[in-house]
Design brief:
- The complex is a heterodimer of chains A (250) and B (403).
- Chain A has nine helices and twelve strands.
- Chain A has 250 residues and is α/β, with parallel strands linked by helices.
- In chain A, helix 4 packs across helix 6 and helix 6 runs parallel beside helix 7.
- Chain B is 22% helix and 35% strand.
- Chain B folds into two domains: 263 residues, no CATH class; 67 residues, no CATH class.
- The N terminus and C terminus of chain B are likely disordered.
- Chain B is globular and about 65 Å long.
- In chain B, strands 1-2-4-6-8-10-12-14-16 form a nine-stranded mixed beta sheet, with helices on one face.
- Chain B is of the alpha/beta class and 403 residues long.
- The chains are: A alpha/beta (250), B alpha/beta (403).
- Chains A and B meet through helix 2, strand 7, helix 3 and helix 4 of A and helix 6, helix 7 and helix 9 of B.
Chain lengths: 250, 403
């Protein structure tokens, strides 16, 4: 059974149709890259799958491990194992990263019918994971994304992903704003996360992230539809030729 | 100016009682005549007066006349190095003579004049010069409807005070912070029913430091007058407040910071969350006197409205008579950010828990640090209250120190 199954998804935002019948099937253990020019609907796809308010699903379904989540709340989707790494992570002044992560982890534990981890166990795990991403212990005490650099915000998204252990992670332009060193750290985090039981969807403009996280499938989204799919060589083609040929194809 | 529009009969009766001939069952060595003079000259405040337009003082007059409940007087214990004297003890006399009323202009604070006349209990808390007290002093009820806590932090001394007025109809906390001294004042006001007013007055001398945390809920009518006088060169005051109101709670904070000396600094940071049909008021006045050059003053207040019937009145006032100053103020009123809520929900945190998390974070912008968690929990505890301590907050308070 696919982990993520998007079928004929039509989405409108403020009276404008952004997605016009997207199909995408992601099986366990796979990494998919969704690429496309600005305004093609990539972020809309990521956000609508996560249940962000403001997007109207006109038609189609989104299934997570067979369960229809098209109308589910963002929280329900998250607890079923969906994770969205935000393109622009939100700042929450006054709430420490530690408190935010513990609230999220407790909520997941409760949904699984387990008890919340002890504070000590949680802190140990959070620190070790932060360290893997090159984030020092003080990082966990700071307000969520408050005053973080672009790279720190993106690494914080990966930290959350590693701690929450979703079944499917959608990374919305996680590579944007990262220097090469930071991108390698982020990519290492994603590669650590990958296993046969979960899946990753990378939404990106550029091929460069795919040098570090090798996708099994590459899709080109343009004009609200996936117009072409292939293996990683498709990303290399895009890198070489740009997106201009797509306009002809549309 | 006599009360006539609201609670008129209560005001009349109270007025007569204040100025009538009578004996006082509580008779420490204090001067009541100046207070009687103020009331005789100006009368009692009325609801329509500018300073009282948000709070129906008539309700307070009715409460002021009600027979006082016998409060449960907690034993006030002070740590070693701190002196505690009841006003009616002989040992209190020199301190009353030297300091009582030094930080208070009774003509500007008529209910403090009422308090002085009807005073039922007072304590002097004194920290001798140079003593640094690590353990906070706690003062809850001290046994009367009208209370006065006179805090004297002598030169170079340091103290933290935590106080919660519970049954007092009116409490005065008067803080004398001498040269180079430091006072951390924590005021916790849980939700209550009866009308309650009070005055916090601080006189801060040269290079001294006064900080106030005000963590408050409301009552039918609750008003805090806060008046800080920066009286010596280089004095500093940090006033931080967080309030959370619902139902028909009412909280009116009237804050004045007087910069009287040069090179003084004041920072005011307030955050309010207001729902139901509650009303929150912050009137924050910064006054820079003519000689107070190189003053540095700021005030920010941010408020979240949780319902369409809630009311927030946020009014900064600057009054500047010096020409070399740095002053700023800002006030905002808004709703909880949907993007923040979505971010929390996308991590599996349900909407109610997300709201609680965001509201706590918002309030902690005013009251921050590890000590804040306990203070906020004390002020905002209660059934169904989303701002009490949570397991996640325990983690925050552990501060990640577990190895």
């Amino acid at each position: 059974m696919p982990l993520l199954d998007i079928e004929d998804l039509h989405v409108q935002v403020e009276d404008q149709v952004i997605l016009g019948g997207v199909h995408l099937t992601v099986a366990p253990g796979e990494v998919h890259a969704v690429m496309g020019p600005n305004g093609s609907g990539k972020s809309t796809l990521a956000n609508v799958v996560a249940g962000r308010p403001g997007y109207e699903v006109l038609r189609g379904t989104v299934r997570l491990a067979g369960e229809d989540i098209t109308q589910a709340s963002p929280e329900e989707r998250a607890l079923l194992g969906l994770f969205l790494a935000f393109q622009y992570p939100i700042e929450i002044p006054g709430v420490s990263n530690m408190e935010f992560l513990k609230a999220a982890i407790d909520s997941h534990a409760l949904a699984r019918g387990e008890g919340a981890p002890s504070a000590a166990a949680f802190i140990r795990r959070a620190r070790a994971t932060a360290e893997r991403l090159g984030l020092d212990a003080g990082f966990l005490k700071r307000g969520v994304n408050e005053g973080f650099s672009g790279g720190e915000k993106k690494r914080n998204e990966i930290l959350q992903m590693l701690l929450l252990e979703p079944r499917i992670a959608i990374l919305d332009e996680t590579d944007s704003g990262l220097d090469v060193d930071a991108m390698q750290v982020v990519a290492a985090g994603v590669n650590d996360f990958r296993d046969t039981g979960n899946a990753v969807v990378l939404v990106t403009h550029y091929q460069r992230l795919l040098d570090y996280i090798v996708p099994d499938h590459v899709h080109v989204l343009a004009g609200g539809n996936i117009i072409r799919s292939g293996d990683r060589t498709l990303a290399e083609l895009l890198d070489r030729d740009g997106y201009s040929w797509i306009e002809d194809a549309c | 100016m006599r009360a006539s529009t609201q609670g008129p009969q209560a005001a009349e009766v109270l007025y007569a009682r204040l100025l009538g001939k009578g004996t006082y069952s509580y008779a420490p060595a204090i001067d009541r005549d100046a207070a009687r003079g103020c009331i005789a000259a100006d009368g009692l405040p009325v609801f329509r007066a500018e300073a009282w337009k948000y709070s129906n003082v008539g309700k307070w007059y009715q409460a002021a006349l009600a027979p006082a409940e016998a409060p449960s007087v907690g034993e006030t214990c002070v740590p070693d190095g701190v002196e505690l004297h009841r006003f009616d003890e002989p040992a209190a006399r020199p301190f009353l003579a030297d300091h009582l009323g030094a930080a208070i202009d009774l003509a500007r604070h008529p209910l403090a004049a009422v308090n002085r006349i009807l005073l039922g209990s007072g304590v002097v808390v004194r920290v001798p010069a140079g003593r640094r007290i690590d353990e906070p002093v706690n003062v809850d009820d001290i046994g009367a409807a009208y209370e006065h806590i006179l805090l004297i932090v002598e030169p170079g001394a340091e103290l933290a005070l935590v106080e919660t007025p519970i049954t007092a109809t009116h409490r005065v906390v008067e803080c004398i912070v001498a040269e180079g001294a430091r006072l951390m004042h924590r005021r916790v006001q849980p939700r209550g029913q009866a009308p309650q007013c009070g005055l916090i007055a601080a006189k801060v001398d040269e290079e001294a430091h006064y900080s106030l945390w005000l963590v408050a809920r409301g009552t039918e009518l609750r008003r805090n007058d806060i008046h800080v006088t920066l009286a010596g060169r280089g004095a500093e005051a940090h006033l931080n407040g967080a309030w959370r109101l619902g139902d028909r709670e009412h909280l009116d904070n009237q804050v004045t910071v007087d910069h009287l000396a040069p090179e003084c600094t004041s920072r005011q940071t307030f955050r309010g969350v207001v729902g139901g049909r509650a009303r929150a008021v912050l009137n924050g006045r910064i006054h820079i006197a003519a000689g107070a050059q190189a003053s540095d003053a700021s005030l920010t207040t941010k408020n979240l409205l949780e319902s369409t019937d809630a009311e927030v009145y946020a009014k900064p006032e600057l009054e500047i008579y010096a020409n070399d100053v740095r002053c700023s103020h800002g006030a905002t009123v808004g709703a909880l950010d949907e993007a923040m809520l979505f971010y929390c929900e996308s991590r599996g945190i349900d909407r109610d828990a997300a709201r609680g998390l965001l509201l706590r974070g918002f309030l902690r912008e005013a009251i921050a640090g590890e000590e804040a968690i306990g203070v906020l929990a004390a002020g905002f505890s209660g059934a169904g209250e989303p701002l009490g301590a949570t397991p996640a907050e325990d983690v925050a308070s552990a501060g990640g120190e577990v190895q």
